[in-house]
Amino acid sequence: MHERAALPLPWLDRRGNVSLLKSLVFAGVLAPGLWLLFRAATGSLGPRPYIEINHQTGLWAIRFLLISLAVTPLRHVWRWGDLIQLRRMLGLAAFAYAVIHLVAYAGDLGWDFGKVVSEIIARPYLTIGFVALLMLVPLAATSTEGMMRRMGGIEWRALHRLVYPVAALATVHFFLQSKLGVTEPIVMAAIAAWLALWRLLAARIGEQKAGTLAATVILAIVIVVATGLGEALYYYLKVGAPFSRVLPTNFAWKTSIRPAWIVLGISLAVIAVAAIRIPIAARKPSRRAQAGVAAKPASGVSQRQGKAA
Description:
Number of strands: 0
Distance between the termini: 45 Å
Number of domains: 2
Radius of gyration: 24 Å
Structural class: mainly alpha
Shape: globular
Order of helices and strands: HHHHHHHHHHHHHH
Largest sheet: none
Strand content: under 5%
Helix content: over 70%
């Protein structure tokens, strides 16, 4: 009788050992939900608790989605192969928060599912967000290694490329529903554009070359400049503010924090970590090389034993 395989625990690595990295990230993806539960228990969610849950879970859904997409670029930029183990956890976290985001919206409408459907159909930003959630369903359902084996690597990868249009739709949804400010939506759009550009560059020159420090710096400069121009374009289209009034705010440090500053800070953090890790990774032998070194003494011993015999 074959034992039924247990689901892998999120804090264990592929060898079944406790991973500090995965444990920290697992705690990180749970933290926003636990904080919302605490606020609900203490009655501090405000006069419309479902709307607060809806807003917060939607925010974390798109954050985790973009972070999951950033795993592959960062894996190459930072020379940190173990980051690949985080992609599934982050993707499932994004899906879970997106589902709660929709459920909370239904709760705010008094669980009137007919009204929920009519609102989703009537409001374009809700339609876009709902389509993005529907597209996440097959990705979440096929996220296990067992499904990858059953589908085959080529078909599985083709299906999971849907995550890029999902990210685009989620970014548009987030931008359209933002009413109080557009700083974070612009930042999210800039990060999504950065990840898309990296993927296009990797497809053209290869992931290793796209992950060099020089390529990272060039992409960062392009995205920071594009973020400033994008913010100016938004205010020009929205309220008719001329570029000459909006663009200089990126150099006026007494004004509020601009989206381009946030993207610049993220870029500098990525580059700083890369500058530290690349020399370390260059000195560290690869696992394949370590396996080869470990195999040589054994073969040498066998040869000596053969001669002695």
